[in-house]
């Protein structure tokens, strides 16, 4: 991928399978055409450190990115506009981020071992943070039907 000036740290594929989103160690996001592999537009800047995780919201036309700078940012799928930035910082950086509840909620895992749900429409935390021995979390999954968060170490 030639759209970043540093290594690619994360990727996500849109639900339609036509778009690929990459995040990089240079703090940028880049959209790619999954059919022909071509870069779509310029890299979008907004984070001040590595982008560790990116996710598509599905049909809502929104993507999210989480960075080592501790921020969560929402963008339009075409990367033309940054919609918002979380007002609360995640200690230790945002290591994983994903949508749940049909794109209405976000789940984040931060470097200090905290799992937290967020309202994806206004960036407000939902409920209390879940803390534990999560400092080496490798992957997470959400079951929307049962509201289960699964973690793998």
Q: Helicity, in percent? A: under 10%
Q: What gross morphology would you assign?
A: globular
Architecture, CATH level 2?
7 Propeller
Could you give me the name of the CATH homologous superfamily?
YVTN repeat-like/Quinoprotein amine dehydrogenase
Spatial arrangement of strands, main beta sheet: 1-2-3-4
CATH class: Mainly Beta
Q: DSSP helix count?
A: 0
Stated plainly, the CATH topology is called Methylamine Dehydrogenase, Chain H
Q: Give the number of domains.
A: 1
> How many β-strands, per DSSP?
14
Instruction: Look at the structure and give the mean pLDDT.
Output: 76
The largest β sheet comes out as: 4 strands, antiparallel
Uncertain ranges:
none
Category from helices, strands and their pairing:
mainly beta
- Cα Rg: 14 Å
Strand coverage percent: over 45%
H/E series:
EEEEEEEEEEEEEE
Question: Termini, distance in Å?
Answer: 29 Å
Please provide a written account of the structure:
With 153 residues, the protein is mainly beta. The chain has a single domain, classed as YVTN repeat-like/Quinoprotein amine dehydrogenase (Methylamine Dehydrogenase, Chain H, 7 Propeller). 0% of the residues lie in helices and 54% in strands. The protein has no helices and 14 strands. The strands form 4 sheets. A 4-stranded antiparallel sheet has the order 1-2-3-4, with no helix packed on it. A 4-stranded antiparallel sheet has the order 5-6-7-8, with no helix packed on it. The model has no long low-confidence stretch (mean pLDDT 76).
